[in-house]
C-alpha cells in the first residue's frame, strides 16, 4: 500500500568453521550462496531489498578452517555479501592479532557495543552501523555475551572489558538518537536465546535484552550462541525439524531470530514497514541440503536439493584441499575407543583424559630438564572422542582445537595440595582430568586428602611438577592463576602439536594402558 516499504533480512549464525559442506554434502557456503542469491533475486524483482547478517562465532570448529585461521570462512562471507556480523565469544579463540587480521579481511564490519579496552573508555569494535535498505534506515547494534572472558583463554581477552548489554543498550540508543536519524533499530547479538529468559547458569540472553528495553525502541534481535533454531510455540520451543514452519520469538514488541548453527539453515524474514510500524509478513528457516534418514536407513534431502554456487565452490575448494592434505596423514593406531564425549568426560576420569595428561607430562619429562609428576586437563577442553582404528592429525585437532601452549610448573607439596583442592571441586568444563594421582575429595569442605602423586606417596615437604595447558594456568574455568608463579614455564608448543608427537611416538596404542584407576579421584 501507500507508504509501505518492504525489505528482507537474511541471517545465519555460529558458522564455526563450516565453510565447506560435510561428508554427506550438507550445508556449506556454496549452497548457502545459491539460496541467498535466489532470495535476493526474488525480493529485488518485487521492488524490495535485502540485508545479510551473521550472529557471530565464525571461528573454531573444524580443523580445515582452524588451521587456516578461518580465512576460508571470511573469504566465503565476502563472496556471499554479508553486511555485518556480531562478534562471538569464539572470535577470541586466537590472539587479537588474528582477529585483527580477520577484520581486515572482512568486507563488512564486526559489531560489538559492549567490548572496551580495559585501560581506556574506547570500544574495540564499531558499536553499530546504519544501513539503508530500500529507503529505510536501520541501525544495527552489536552485542557479545558477557560470558566470553569466562570461557576464553584469558590471555586473548586480558586487555578487554565486556560490559552488560542490558546496561549498554540504552547508552547506544541515546548515541544513535543524538547522531543519526533512523527508522528502526535492530540488535545483532551473540548472547544466546533462552526460552522465556530461562538462561540457567549462562549469562542473560536475547529474551532478557528484549524485555529490558523501553518498548518500541528495539524492533528485532538477530542472535547466535545458543545454536538453536528459535522457533516458538508460545514461550516454549516448538518441536522443529527441517522444512517445518518456524515462528520466531516476539518479546516486548521485539522479534528475536536465530538460525541454529553451521549454516545448516538460512533465516529469511520478509518485513513490511508502514507508518512507523514493522510487521513480519513471512518467516522461514531454509534447510541447506540437510538430510534425514528414510525408512531404509538411507540419507535423503529433508526438502529439496540445492546446487552449490560454482564460483563460491571453486574459490573455496583450494582451502578445503589444503586443509585435507595437512590433516589426513595417518600418524597412529588405537585398538579401542578413547572417551571424550562431553557428558562423560565432564563427569568422570576417562582413558582420553589419561592419554592427554600422560602425553603432556611425558613431553615435559622428555624435553625439559625436569620430570613431570602428573598432568592436568580441563575436561571442557576435550572436544571429542577418538574412535578405534587409524588416527590422523585431523583427530588430534578435533579433540584439541584451541591451540593452547602446553606449560608446566613446579610447586611445593603444600601449594600443590591447595591447587588440587581448588580444581578438584570444579564441575562442567572445569572438571579436571588428572593422571598419576590418588586422592579423596571432600567437596563440601573444599579439601583433598592426597594418598599418591606422581607414583609416590604424597609428602608435603617434597616438590611436584605438573603439566597443564596455558588456558588453565591463566585462570580459564576459574582455575587458580599460576602463570605468574616463579616456577611457571610455557613451552610455546601447542597442545595439538604435543599430542600429535605423542601419537607419532606411539604408533600402536592400547586403550587398556590408559584405563583410569578406580578411585583415582574419590568423591
Ligand atoms: P559456544 O556455545 O559459544 O560454542 P562452547 O560450546 O565452547 O561455547 P562449552 O561447550 O560449554 O561452550 O565449552 C566451554 C568450556 O570449553 C570451558 O569450560 C572450557 O573448559 C573449554 N574451553 C573454552 N575455551 C578453551 C580454550 N581456549 N582452551 C581450552 N579449553 C577451552
Ligand atoms: Zn558462542
TrEMBL record:
5'-Nucleotidase C-terminal domain residues:
331-483
Instruction: Tell me the domain of life.
Output: Bacteria
Q: Per the database entry, which stretches of residues form a coiled coil?
A: none
InterPro entries from the entry? 5'-Nucleotdase_C, 5'-Nucleotdase_C_sf, 5'-Nucleotdase_CS, 5_nucleotidase/apyrase, Calcineurin-like_PHP, Metallo-depent_PP-like
- Which intervals hold domain Calcineurin-like phosphoesterase? 8-226
Which terms are listed as keywords in the entry?
Hydrolase, Metal-binding, Nucleotide-binding, Signal
The text of the family note is:
Belongs to the 5'-nucleotidase family.
> What protein name is recorded for this chain?
Bifunctional metallophosphatase/5'-nucleotidase
Which organism does this sequence originate in?
A: Shewanella colwelliana
